[in-house]
Specification:
Structural class: alpha+beta
Order of helices and strands: EEEHEEEHHHEHEHEEHHEEEEEEEEE
Strand order of the largest sheet: 6-7-8-3-9-10
Number of domains: 2
Largest sheet: 6 strands, mixed
Strand content: 25-35%
CATH class of the largest domain: Alpha Beta
Distance between the termini: 41 Å
Number of helices: 8
Helix content: 10-25%
CATH topology of the largest domain: Rossmann fold
Length: 360
C-alpha cells in the first residue's frame, strides 16, 4: 500500500537574510491531519519556517510542496493555508459572527452559505451564544476561539498558529490547549503550531520538530523525544534532567556501561556508543527512586540535602558522596515513604532509563 502523501513537504530548505543564515538543511514532511509543533528557543528559526510555509517569505534554496503542488512563487492569498497570530487581529467594531464571516464575505459567498458555515464553526468552537457580542465583551480565551473560527471557516488545508496562547494566563492557556485538541479533532485540519513552551508542545502535538540554530535537530512523538533525546540540547530543553560526564568501558549483549571520573557506573540497555567514547549520561528525576524495583537496578549513596513539595509531587536533592547532586521526583502517597531531610539514602535507577548522549 502506498503511504499517504504529506500535506507539506520541504526538501533541503535554506533561508538567508543578507549574511545571516536563518534556516539550513530543513527536510520536513508534515502529514495530513496531524498537529506538528515547531519547538525551540527564541531565534532558532521556527517563526521563519512558518512564514515560509505561509508565503510571507521565500526559500533561498530548496523546495516546498503543499498538497503536492510546488508553491515557489505562489503568494500567501493563493496558498491553502491560514494563520493565527499571538495578537488575534480581530475587528473591534464587528461582532463575533461578523468577525468569523469577514473572509467569506470578501470571497463573495452567498449570504445563506456564509450563515451556514459561520454557525457551524461557532458551534465547533462553542461560541454559538456569543455570535452577537463584540470583542471587548468576551474574554481572552473566547477571543482566541474567535480567531481560530475565523481562520478555519475558509476551509484551509493547513492552519498555522504562531504562539497563539502566549498572551493568556496559565489557567486559560491550559484550558485552551484542551480546546485546541478538540477543535482540531472536529475540523480535521492539519495544524502547524509554533511555541517555545515545552509543556504546550508535549500536551498538544502528534509530533514535535525541535529546532536549534536554524536546524531541526530531532523530529519525534513527544513521549519519545522526552524519553529518548538524541542530543544534550534536546535532553536539557525538554525538561529537567540529571547529567553526568562519563566514558564507555564495556559494550556487550547486556548493554553499554559508562563510568564517571568518580567511579559511578551506569548501564544503559539501549545506547548508541562505542568502547572508550566520551558520553553524557541523562536520567530524568522521575526515573530515579529511593526504592529498588524488580529489575536489579543500579544505585549510588548520598545524603538528602533539600526537599521541595509541589502538590502531589516532591522533589528531593541528594548530595552524592562524590559531591555531585541529583534531583529525584517522588509521587506522594501512603505507600511511598521517602527519606527525611539530612538522612543517608540510596538512589536507584534502571538501565532502561539511562540515556547516553554523544559529547559535542
Amino acid at each position: 500500500m502506498t503511504p499517504p502523501r504529506p500535506i507539506i513537504e520541504i526538501r533541503a530548505g535554506k533561508k538567508v537574510f543578507g549574511s545571516f543564515t536563518a534556516l539550513s538543511e530543513i527536510n520536513l514532511a508534515i502529514e495530513e491531519g496531524e498537529i506538528l509543533t515547531l519547538l525551540g528557543p527564541s531565534g532558532c528559526g521556527k517563526t521563519t519556517l512558518m512564514r515560509l510555509i505561509a508565503g510571507f517569505d521565500t526559500l533561498t534554496q530548496g523546495s516546498m510542496r503543499i498538497g503536492g503542488v510546488d508553491v515557489a512563487g505562489v503568494p500567501p492569498e493563493r496558498r491553502p493555508v491560514n494563520m493565527v497570530f499571538q495578537r488575534y487581529a480581530l475587528f473591534p467594531h464587528l461582532d463575533v459572527f461578523e468577525n468569523v464571516a469577514f473572509g467569506l464575505k470578501v470571497k463573495g459567498l452567498p449570504k445563506d452559505k456564509i450563515k451556514e458555515r459561520v454557525q457551524r464553526m461557532l458551534h465547533i468552537v462553542q461560541l454559538d451564544s456569543f455570535a452577537n457580542r463584540y470583542i471587548d465583551q468576551i474574554s481572552g480565551g473566547q477571543s482566541q476561539r474567535v480567531a481560530l473560527a475565523r481562520a478555519l471557516v475558509n476551509g484551509p488545508k493547513v492552519l498555522l498558529l504562531d504562539e497563539p496562547l502566549a498572551a493568556l494566563d496559565l489557567k486559560i492557556r491550559q484550558h485552551m490547549l484542551a480546546e485546541m485538541k478538540r477543535i482540531h479533532a472536529e475540523s480535521g485540519t492539519t495544524f502547524v503550531y509554533v511555541t517555545h513552551d515545552q509543556d504546550e508542545a508535549m500536551i498538544l502535538s502528534d509530533r514535535v520538530a525541535l529546532m536549534e540554530k536554524g536546524r531541526i535537530v530531532q523530529l519525534d512523538r513527544p513521549e519519545d523525544m522526552y524519553a529518548r533525546p538524541k542530543s544534550l540540547f534536546a535532553a536539557k530543553f525538554l525538561g529537567e534532567t540529571n547529567l553526568f560526564e562519563a566514558r564507555v568501558t564495556h559494550v556487550n549483549g547486556v548493554g553499554t556501561t559508562a563510568v564517571t571520573p568518580s567511579g559511578i557506573r551506569f548501564l544503559a540497555s539501549d545506547a548508541n556508543a562505542s568502547q572508550d567514547d566520551s558520553v553524557t549520561i541523562s536520567i530524568r528525576p522521575e526515573s530515579l527512586s529511593f526504592q529498588s524495583g524488580d529489575a536489579a537496578p543500579q544505585s549510588v549513596e548520598g545524603t538528602v540535602e533539600d526537599i521541595v513539595f509541589i502538590g502531589s509531587r516532591s522533589f528531593y536533592t541528594v548530595r552524592l558522596d562524590d559531591q555531585s547532586s541529583v534531583r529525584i521526583q517522588v509521587q506522594r502517597n501512603a505507600r511511598n515513604v521517602p527519606p527525611a531531610l539530612h538522612a543517608r539514602t540510596k538512589v536507584f535507577w534502571d538501565a532502561a532509563n539511562v540515556v547516553m548522549l554523544p559529547r559535542p
